[in-house]
Task: structure prediction
Amino acid sequence: MPPLAVLDAPANDACACDRPTSAKLSIDAALARAAAWASPVTDVDFLPLGAAAGRFLAHSVRARLSSPAFDRSAVDGYAVRAGAGLEAGERLPVIGRIAAGARGTRLREGEVARIFTGAPIPPGADAVVMQEDVRQDGNAIVLARPVHAGAHIRPAGEDVALGDRLAEGGARVDARLIALLAAQGIAMVATRRRPRVAVLSTGDEVAEPGAPLGPAAIYDANRPMLLALLEVSGCETVDAGIVRDDPREQAQRLSMLAERCDLIVTSGGASVGEEDYAARAAHLAGGDAEPLAMALKPGKPALVGRIGAAAFLGLPGNPVSALVVFSLLGRAMLARLAGSTPSPPQGLPVPLAEPLSRKPGRTEFVPARLLRENGMVRLALLSSNSARLQPLVDADGFAEIPADVAHAAPGTPAAFHAFAGLLG
Ligand code: AMP
Ligand code: MG
Result:
């Protein structure tokens, strides 16, 4: 029997929000609340396709061509007129040769033309015979098997038809979409300006990596993590540094940032304790900040709101909490800035490698590793301590454990969120 995975609950994860879940928001409801504070970026950058990777489409795009534009051969072989069908053993003269990019002349009944992959089907032909399915006989071929009309032809419009919707406004431009648009002959694309997102760390104990470390200090892990995450998510980032646990200083910094950013993300001090200043600072800066308590672990309450024209997200200080809450609420806000509809991240079911036992009540995101054994994939849960970064680096993604689950046998599927998808 494998050891029992007992998910640990570090002392500093316990807080007032550990109490009953009924007053807490569902993750879906929290996503919607968070997104509602952000407004789509309206400025449009008209960019060459090659420079648009990582941007978001300003509008939906429709096909301006049928693609491919003509019937073409899917293989190297012979274009034939199959009509009602040709029998094996038929001998057919080769009257021409059509390479990709060339155009053939009309075939008459009984004639064939040598043809290559991607070349247009000549008029009069209605099928292609693979070269492996013929025998050469002088200037003719002999069919090794019967041929039916339509064989090995890629018909015009098989990929997309004129007027088809290729992508919605708000879609992320990635290598696949670039290929689809390029295949349409599209050289320039309308994208939204990259959202400008500031990242600010708060806390008297938080020190800049590279600076000397005081006796009760920790290095800032959240800001570099969030800046990296935002960069790969297609944002323009503003490194807003570290600010002390002082509501006035924080408010001043927030006001400055609000003037030039679409979103401000802070970490630390987002809860409702005596030493938590982010909400007060947001109010002092003339903004709104509402605490969202979700039935989520890790994740103390987060703050969502608005300061001036900028949306505001206040994340918990523990790095894993900050990452999980950002992956949910931050992603929802970014989706709205990009003009698309936020949706919760979708995990893929993967069977647990070990039995699970834990306190139910909150949906839990646990760093997890994919184990591949005998062609099977299983999910091993790592430490759920939200202050620990090493398990994140050792993991392949998060396992999502539903709120009501207290025990699960090995083999029970859990939703797995690969970092590759979740973190951009
Ligand atoms: P807080 O949310 O301010 O109560 O902080 C929770 C925990 O996260 C505390 O142990 C903080 O020291 C830690 N913490 C806060 N900010 C950061 C940061 N930028 N990087 C790493 N740890 C942090
Ligand atoms: Mg703090």
Remarks:
- The mean pLDDT is 93.
- The longest helix spans residues 319-337.
